[in-house]
Design a protein that fits this description.
746 residues; alpha/beta; seven-stranded parallel beta sheet; globular
Length: 746
Amino acid sequence: MAHTDGSQSFPQYAAVALNMPVNTAFTYGIPTALLGHAAIGMRVKVSFRGRLETGFVVEVSQAPPAGLGRILPIAEIIGREAHFPAELIALARWISDFYSSSVGEVLAAMSPPAAKRKGHSRITYALAVSPQRAVEEASKLGARARRQAELLRLFANKPAMTDLDMAKISKGARAAANALVQKGVLVCEGSEAMPEVWCTGHDEGKRFPKPTEPQQQAIREITAATESGSFSTFLLWGVTGSGKTEVYLRAISAVVESGGQAIVLVPEISLTPQTIARFQSRFPRLAVLHSAMAAGTRSSQWELCLKGKADVVIGARSAVFAPLPNLKLIVIDEEHEPSYKQDNAPRYSAREVAVMRANLKGAVVVLGSATPSLESWHNARTGKYRLLELPDRVGGGVIPVAEIVDMKAERSEMKKAVAISRTLKTAMIESLSSGRQVLLFLNRRGYHVFGRCAECGGVLTCLHCDVSMTHHRRENAVVCHYCGYRTPPPIKCPECGASALVYGGMGTEKIEDILATIFPEVRVGRMDADTTSARGSHAEILGAFRRGDIQVLLGTQMVAKGLDYPNITTVGVLDADVSLMHPDFRASERTFQLLAQVAGRAGRGEFKGRVIIQTSMPGNFAIQSGAKQDFKGFAERELESRLQYGYPPYVRLCRIVARSESESSARDYLKAVVGLLAEPVSRFDVRLLGPVAAPVSRTEGKYRFHILLKAASHRPLLECCSVLRNFSRPPGDVSVAVDMNPMSML
């Protein structure tokens, strides 16, 4: 049978969503040979404009939409089972509408990258004991099995390794690994192994800590909700060290024991072997999903979830999409973290997606934080979320009240620039001399933060971005932290040609050198984006700190949260003002959160902690509140300010950013958008601001302009976004980003 236009007829038709920014799915025919296989949720190969593209079947019908011309057949089915259950297809449609992305873009973001198939299955080796036990076993092996001992020490400081990794280490590494398997120290698994997980095993005699009464109350309420089978959202607010993780573990245990499944989201910087080991010690059927994993590993973990072979999934932002068939609980730890918001299309918030997924599924969401986002706190205060409180540290530990050091006064008294105040230096000496450890936080990497000409005053800026270059001394380069452009430090000023360039500001690299001068006998570990770029380096640094090989850990925000080391007795914040300088309405909130979180790393064991905050703004309310870790006091005052000036949680925001190599093209397009939105803005009482140049007005050689939409609820903003998607196509030299509930205004 054939259509009147001469195209082939098919027994069924599929709507296929492609990874493209278009607001429609494309119709393809399902050949007789593929009937019953091209089901909703399947990945397929289709011909699109002369090339094969991977897409996702989102609908199957008996007849094609009216008015179509020639219909091409699906070329290939990928896999034997649906890649996405129907529940995730429904979630993808909601994400598409809410975040102004195509369904194909959303499904591509949900999906792990396709694994490159080799001619053989990859074998994975992983620890069958704890990292500490591995070090002990390596010492016992000593010289009589030197290669095995060296290999075991590698496993103690980095994730599991494949047979290909073994080949890169040495010719005999594979044999040594097999010998360790025979001794029960390593496990060897095939393609469904769980790399990047500490295989700590189960100790049946191990006793888990008895919950405190507030913990028990939280566990009871969460468990009752999961057993009811109805949707609800909890905000678990607890001071640092109050045992939020134990609440998660107990609630998840109840879910797993009843046959359910759970997802645990943690910020990328908190997804450490220590965190994973803690969950795997309770849940041996654990899967790990995050974007930094190798494609094959991530794909195999996804398959474990699809096949029902995982009870619990732990991961960063994208793990919210794990295809668990009997999902009952989603936990989001450190729910306030900006990293839960994706900064490219689809610009989804994992927190918002988790709540919607649980709503669709009849599951429970637990949002946990010592410093909740003001949106979540407002939802708990108004009854949208159920508030659970853990007001005290487990074991009766006292949260240290930080000492604030006025660095302007310090510099005046010392008559020179000062990086480490006298107060902080004294505290460090006391901790180090007693065998304790020190944590130092500075949210700026590099050696110098800027370069300036002493003659004309010009600042050394990136050729492609409207930002200053950061001096990295060890690389002998100045680097743009936006686009990655780097060049040797110029000898002359690019503006006036004078040989008068001077560098200022201190980053972690310079602080490391200063510490080496002050404490020459102390080993310092630096943890920032420069020192953790290599695979496994993050775990290696933390492993050394855990063992005590590093006495002082210096780092950016990746050391500010999630670390639970009882031997830390001094915490120093070297410049508390960094995040206050951002032109963003959340600047005070983020400053408070960082200070409270990093201060919470001190005094977690039996030893009293001490926290020193160095600042040039000692009277700032966010710094004062962060020093006292007074979240409720900070939230009350900050919410008053948000209400007064019309910012979330009292209004909803949508930011539209246009980028182009032509300044006028970006600006003119947004002017056209303002005209296009005039009617819905007026009808739905939306406030429109702009267009104006973005605070960072140029990145990667492209000019940036933005407009901001404000409304009392999301619906008016969604109406405006719908008009924009359906009626406004930007010119070819302009790219547009629509960001619902933006986390950054830069």
